[in-house]
Design a protein that fits this description.
By secondary structure, this protein is α/β, with parallel strands linked by helices. Helices cover 42% and strands 18% of the residues. Residues 1-7 have low confidence and may be disordered.
Length: 401
Amino acid sequence: MDNQTKVDRTIGYCTNVHAGTSLAQTKANIENYATKVKQIVSPDEPMGIGWWLSRQAVTELFTLGAEGLPQLKDWFKQLGLIPFTCNGFPYGDFHETKVKHNVYEPSWSTSERVGYTHALIAILTEISSNFSHRSISTLPIGWPGQPCANVDVDTAAINLLELAKSLREIADSTGVFIHIDLEPEPGCILQRSTDVVEFFENYLLPNARQLKIPAETVLGHIRICHDICHAAVMFEDQQTVINRYNQAGIRIGKVQVSSAIKIQLDDLSTIDKEQALKQLQAFAEDRYLHQTMIRLADGKMKFFEDLPLALNCEFAQKHIGEWRVHFHVPIFLDRFELIHTTQQDIIKCLQTIKNDDDILHYEVETYAWNVLPKDLQTDDLAQGIAQEINWLKDHMPHEQS
């Protein structure tokens, strides 16, 4: 466990739910929302957050000079907030009018991604003094093909390995242990747990041997951010995923607690089938990519990289199949009208890893509050986020008495 104890297990929420790319906007969001969430869920104790900073905010922070990070550290302490983890996936404006595939740029085969992550490491090393164990989640190498730039997976692996070597040096010299957590996502180069295992076995570990980087350095500092929603969309059983990682010696560094949309059209009446698809149409918004997987009665599956494409396919016209949609909905919801969620996957995941003391970071990541259909939005975002965190605490097996 890299000299960690159960005390380090932390629950927080990801601030990528808040819009704003500048450092000033980022700090204002913390003061306007995170502090209110803390008042509800942890009024007397510090509360963890998963901090998202865009490339712009990172650049602005380092222009403040030598006092910038110490001042930031004091600011977080005064607010009673602990940035125990960073979301290093979105690089640019995560709330621009149309994000879609832009969120997968730059890929891990670029110097821009490496530089951005190095900057996050420097920030997290300095400002999160409460724990020696810290994490940074990141994109699963990149998006394979258009409209994104071509990705060289070998180069991506080497970039990650050089980063792991740097993180080992930081751990040895400062005692701060940071791991980079690759986050498998539908449609990406790493979209299933099998893709992850193949990447480690065919790219990371062979290149590590050539570069004379010990396997324990690789497996210690390059881990997985297990987003529960993403696995559910791909119809991956939570226990199977976790067992597969364990058998391959791959460690989960962070669990992103998230829930997807689920509709089983085959179980509905003709009228309800039509109504369910009409209800689903309200989730086909323009900002984010909502990858959709449809599983038919014979077990065959069809992947669509965005919900509008699925809604225009033959399975929609025939009203058949079980649909899973990558749309992060509030985790305390198990259904709304004819649409269900994959909330049970969260419960199964938590039960599966309840005795794994190596998994210390849990981050609620419902970033899509502002693009939900109007009847699911909230007038008080802090209250909604707090409700999610409290729901998670109530369902954490090791939080129960």
